[in-house]
Amino acid sequence: MRIYTLGIDIGSTASKCVILADGKEMVSKSLIPVGAGTSGPQRAINQVLEDCGLKKEDMSYILATGYGRNSMLELADQQMSELSCHAKGAYFLFPNVHTVIDIGGQDVKILQIDNGVMTNFVMNDKCAAGTGRFLDVMARVLEVKVEDLGALGEQSTKDVSISSTCTVFAESEVISQLAQNANKCDIINGIHRSVASRVSGLAHRVGVRDLVVMTGGVAQNKGVVKALEEELGHIIHISPLTQYNGALGAALFAFQKWENEQQEG
Amino acid sequence: MAETEKTTAAAPEAAPVKKAPKPASPGTQALRQAVSDVYAAAWEAKKRGEPVGWSSSKFPCEIAEALGLAVVYPENQAAGIAAQHDGERLCQAAEDLGFDNDICGYARISLAYSSGVETTNESRRMPMPDFVLCCNNICNCMTKWYENIARMHNIPLVMIDIPYNNQVQVDDTYVAYIRGQFDAAIEKMEKIAGRKFDEKKFDEACAAANRTAKAWLKVCDYLQYKPAPMSGFDLFNHMADVVTARGKEQTAQAFELLATELEEHVKNGTTTAPFPEKYRVMFEGIPCWPDLRALFKPLKAHGVNVTAVVYAPAFGFVYNDMDSMIRAYCKAPNSVCIEQGVEWREDICRANKVDGILVHYNRSCKPWSGYMAEMQRRFNRDLGVPTAGFDGDQADPRNFNEAQYETRVQGLVEAMEQNIKVKEGKAQ
Question: Domain B25-202 carries which CATH code?
Answer without folding.
Answer: 3.40.50.11890
